[in-house]
């Protein structure tokens, strides 16, 4: 067959694909949906949507479209027609109506990397079953005094290695801390056990791939992430086997609970452990870094926070037992600082949902099958929800109510089960940080939404030990 034949085949394929894509886009524009633009065939507006920007801002994509089309607009994202919502009422409605009108729907690339049994992928009853288990972990942790003790021990272990006037990459330190805490709670692994460093190393590769282009070609971040996920699973499998074979005694941790009191198959157990490790460490580390960054830039808040922790310390002078849940509950200004860091820093910018049927709400029409993205950052930084939204002002939480505008942990039946753990870890780390150290930035840095949030330079700081408390 000659070249002419192949050119004819090629031209016909291009013609047919163009026709299919045009038809798809024509159908989208004909649907009754809020105003908006749908960008380029296939790509839609995904690249514009994903363009990195400071996490303390909404980014140009949202800013321009909200000005032009209003708070709810249509677009074409992640290969599908989509509604983007910056309206707190619609966001709450979407989150509350999970499985009835809307459903969690992460892009297929995420399925490929997290696995089909991940909590962010499963829906309906399968999700409810896993969620009940995840919640029981958190409740068990809260009532277990050794959990709070482990958090403190790990905070002291990490900061104890900082030498006088040393520069530390704060994000790395925060990551080590939150990782040590979660692997201890779930798997009883100590910071210096070989499995801890193996899993952490694999997780770092895994996280990079989670946010990369889903190209399964050897050498790409995505392919490396898929590989590191199977390495993490194989390390976890070894731990499970050791317990099943009696080579390791029961430790009373979350893995024990899963092995003894549930009917989950081994691969479901491994997937749930992976979800909790994944959900539990990176986001919390970013939150701790965010708190440090905002406190550095707001000396009056740092001063007040420090005196709150000095008061706690002086009250506990004769108490050798360490921090407990009551102490945490008394850290009221610290909780305000954490809320404000979550609002201004937007650790999770948005979540993925899709409409199960045609939905009408407040005059907005959302066609069945379309994606809908509740944008938390846009509401957190909106002046109709918060006065001077760009200002880091923890005092606002003395009167502000964390209503439907405040969704750093999502909402509805998928509300983050680890929110309280993340906050208590942050509060205890900050306790030891402000009592024992002074710090200043080693380099200017800021948090960027890629859309996953990361400090560009890892937040390098010079630390100086105060030699006053514990
Ligand atoms: C600052 C820290 C954290 C932030 C900002 C955060 C944020 C979120 C958000 C927004 C969701 C909802 C996702 C959705 O609706 O699609 C979520 C879900 C989840 N988070 Fe967190 N999270 C944090 C810490 C944690 C911790 C410490 C754990 C584990 C102990 C955890 C485990 C999970 C799990 C398992 C889910 C899935 C829940 C479900 O689908 O029912 N997270 N998180």
From TrEMBL:
Annotated GO CC locations: membrane
Main location: membrane
Localization (cell): Membrane
Keyword Metal-binding part of the UniProt annotation: yes
Keywords, alphabetical: Heme, Iron, Membrane, Metal-binding, Monooxygenase, Oxidoreductase, Transmembrane, Transmembrane helix
Cofactor(s) it depends on: heme
Catalytic activity as recorded in UniProt: campesterol + reduced [NADPH--hemoprotein reductase] + O2 = (22S)-22-hydroxycampesterol + oxidized [NADPH--hemoprotein reductase] + H2O + H(+)
Transmembrane segments: 6-26
Record has Iron as a keyword: yes
Pathway(s) served: Steroid biosynthesis; Plant hormone biosynthesis; brassinosteroid biosynthesis
GO biological process: brassinosteroid biosynthetic process; brassinosteroid homeostasis; sterol metabolic process
Binding positions for heme per the UniProt entry: 416
Superkingdom, taxonomy of origin: Eukaryota
Entry-linked PANTHER family: CYTOCHROME P450 26, CYTOCHROME P450 724B1
Family label: Belongs to the cytochrome P450 family.
Protein name, entry field: Cytochrome P450 724B1
């Amino acid at each position: 067959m000659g070249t002419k034949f192949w050119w004819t085949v090629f031209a016909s394929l291009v013609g047919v694909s163009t026709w299919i894509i045009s038809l798809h886009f024509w159908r989208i524009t004909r649907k009754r949906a809020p105003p908006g633009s749908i960008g380029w065939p296939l790509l839609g507006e995904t690249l514009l949507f994903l363009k990195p920007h400071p996490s303390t801002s909404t980014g140009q994509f949202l800013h321009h479209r909200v000005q032009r089309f209003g708070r709810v607009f249509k677009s074409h994202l992640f290969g599908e027609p989509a509604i983007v919502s910056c309206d707190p009422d619609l966001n709450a409605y979407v989150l509350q109506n999970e499985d009835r009108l809307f459903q969690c729907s992460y892009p297929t690339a995420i399925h490929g990397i997290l696995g089909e049994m991940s909590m962010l992928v499963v829906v309906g009853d399968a999700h409810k079953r896993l969620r009940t288990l995840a919640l029981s972990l958190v409740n068990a942790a809260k009532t277990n005094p050794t959990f709070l003790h482990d958090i403190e021990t790990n905070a002291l272990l990490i900061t104890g290695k900082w030498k006088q006037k040393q520069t530390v990459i704060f994000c790395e330190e925060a990551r080590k801390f939150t990782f040590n805490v979660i692997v201890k709670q779930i798997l009883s692994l100590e910071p210096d056990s070989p499995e801890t460093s193996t899993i952490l190393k694999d997780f770092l590769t895994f996280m990079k791939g989670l946010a990369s282009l889903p190209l399964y070609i050897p050498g790409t971040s995505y392919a490396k992430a898929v590989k590191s996920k199977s390495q993490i699973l194989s390390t976890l499998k070894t731990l499970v086997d050791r317990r099943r074979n009696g080579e390791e005694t029961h430790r009373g941790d979350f893995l024990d609970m899963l092995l003894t009191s549930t009917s989950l198959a081994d691969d479901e157990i491994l997937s749930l452990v992976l979800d909790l490790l994944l959900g539990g460490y990176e986001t919390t580390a970013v939150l701790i870094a965010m708190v440090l960054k905002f406190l550095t830039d707001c000396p009056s808040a740092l001063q007040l926070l420090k005196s709150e922790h000095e008061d706690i310390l002086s009250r506990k002078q004769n108490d050798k037992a360490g921090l407990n849940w009551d102490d945490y509950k008394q850290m009221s200004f610290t909780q305000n600082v954490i809320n404000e860091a979550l609002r201004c820093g937007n650790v999770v910018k948005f979540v993925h949902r899709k409409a199960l049927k045609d939905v009408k709400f407040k005059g907005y029409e959302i066609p069945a099958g379309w994606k809908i993205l509740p944008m938390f950052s846009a509401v957190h930084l909106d002046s109709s929800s918060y006065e001077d939204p760009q200002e880091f002002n923890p005092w606002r939480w003395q009167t502000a109510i964390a209503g439907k505008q405040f969704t750093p942990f999502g909402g509805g039946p998928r509300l983050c089960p680890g929110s309280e753990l993340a906050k208590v870890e942050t509060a205890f780390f900050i306790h030891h940080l402000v009592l024992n150290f002074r710090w200043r930035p080693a380099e200017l840095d800021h948090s960027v939404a890629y859309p996953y949030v990361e400090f560009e330079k890892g937040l390098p700081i010079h630390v100086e030990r105060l030699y006053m408390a514990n």
